[in-house]
Design a protein that fits this description.
alpha/beta; Aspartate Aminotransferase, domain 1; Aspartate Aminotransferase, domain 2; 2 domains; 3-stranded antiparallel sheet; 14 helices; 43% helix
Length: 393
């Protein structure tokens, strides 16, 4: 094993050194060796990729779709994305110049933040929120302003106005709805109120809508429809088609911004993988309704785990989208959410994520993913109830 030359031990990106590794993965890794544990930690659908998409992937490999694709992605896929966004959300983007296919939504977020902003710029991140946004912004040298949305878990007009007044220098705001980790999403009235306020600003809106097909109340309204002239729309196929390992996402927005995002994307990865893009094309050509059955099962699982948590003394707003429950730890239980999560894992053999890793407003909560089998959720519910009963005794 080589040892690093002593004279270069101080090398490293200073901004990167201030950002911890993924806290969600750290918790998942730490508890994974507990025998018999049921993990409700990751946002990983337990469904298989639909058969017609798998067949399209195999066919693409057999047809030698193995070479470099255009940097922005195959035009045929971008045309399908453009048509899908128009048909589904009344959000209109030209396939040529206003859409970039990325290596998952994660790369889309990095390419967008790195491509559009400079060190020292300020970005607003409502919390609780997926930690990636703030971490990527910090790595890129941006100033991150967080604003807690607890306990409603949606950004209210009053909170938004107050944040904008306190930070007139802000260049962008992140919106993620349906939300990870809370499962909250905006009603039509709420999202229109937010859009109306943002329309009077020069903020770029980074709208992560990857859970748009997983809504249980009202149909999703996209910021790409409400505020197209200043929105970067981020999405992908991981949640709607259970294609997490295929790593296909996309960015859509005004051409002047997409040109910059696309250039950064080119320098980061050159292009997404050719067979995976053909799989994504098939998903949109013939599988737009693939997620409907998944969504209906998720709704049943949501109700199942919500009932079990309620019996154990937890309170949580009913998730209106995605596949997460963000539950308040009962006052009768340890209130340090990190300590609680590890105690629950050791004693009840149920793995969840502490709410504090999702930023201000998440303290004292836990996130459970119900993108797990019904059998595992039923058993996890029984174990959590037994754990709660033991604490009372």
């Amino acid at each position: 094993m080589p040892e690093l030359k002593s004279s270069i031990t101080g090398l490293g990106n200073q901004a990167l050194s201030t950002v911890p590794p993924s806290a969600i993965r750290a918790v998942d890794n730490k508890i994974s060796n507990i025998p018999g544990i049921i993990k409700l930690t990751l946002g990983e659908p337990d469904f298989a990729v639909p058969e017609h998409i798998k067949e399209a992937t195999k066919a693409a490999i057999d047809a030698n779709w193995s070479h470099y694709a255009p940097s922005f992605g195959y035009l045929e896929l971008r045309e399908q994305i453009s048509q899908y966004l128009a048909d589904r959300f009344d959000a209109h983007y030209q396939a040529d110049g206003e859409v970039v296919v990325t290596v998952g939504a994660t790369e889309a977020i990095f390419a967008t933040i790195r491509g559009l902003f400079n060190p020292g710029d300020t970005i607003i991140v409502p919390t609780p929120e997926f930690p990636l946004y703030a971490n990527v912004a910090a790595i890129c040298g941006l100033n991150v302003v967080t604003v807690s949305t607890a306990p409603e878990f949606v950004l209210t007009p009053a909170r938004l106005r107050a944040t904008l007044a306190a930070h007139p220098e802000a260049k962008a705001i992140v919106l993620n709805y349906p939300n990870n980790p809370t499962g909250a999403t905006y009603t039509h009235e709420q999202v229109r109120a937010v859009a109306q306020i943002l329309a009077d600003t020069d903020l770029v809106v980074l709208s992560d809508e990857i859970y748009a097909e997983l809504t249980y109340r009202e149909d999703h309204i996209s910021m790409g429809h409400l505020l197209p002239e200043q929105t970067i729309l981020i999405s992908g196929f991981s949640k709607s088609h259970a294609m997490t390992g295929y790593r296909v996402g996309y960015v859509a927005g005004p051409a002047a911004l997409i040109k910059l995002v696309g250039k950064m994307h080119q320098f980061l990865v050159t292009t997404a993988a050719s067979p995976m893009m053909k799989a994504a094309e098939e998903a949109l050509r013939h599988g737009r309704t693939d997620g409907t059955d998944m969504r209906d099962i998720y709704r049943q699982r949501r109700d199942l785990i919500m009932g079990a948590l309620s019996k154990a003394g937890f309170t949580a707003p009913t998730p209106a989208g995605a596949f997460y429950v963000f539950a308040k730890i009962p006052a009768t239980m340890p209130q340090d959410d990190v300590q609680f999560v590890y105690d629950l894992a050791e004693r009840a053999k149920v793995g969840v994520v502490p709410g504090s890793v999702f930023g201000p407003g998440g303290e004292g909560y836990i996130r459970l993913s119900y993108a797990a089998s019904t059998e595992n959720l039923e058993e996890a519910g029984r174990r959590i109830q037994a754990y709660a009963a033991d604490l009372v005794d």
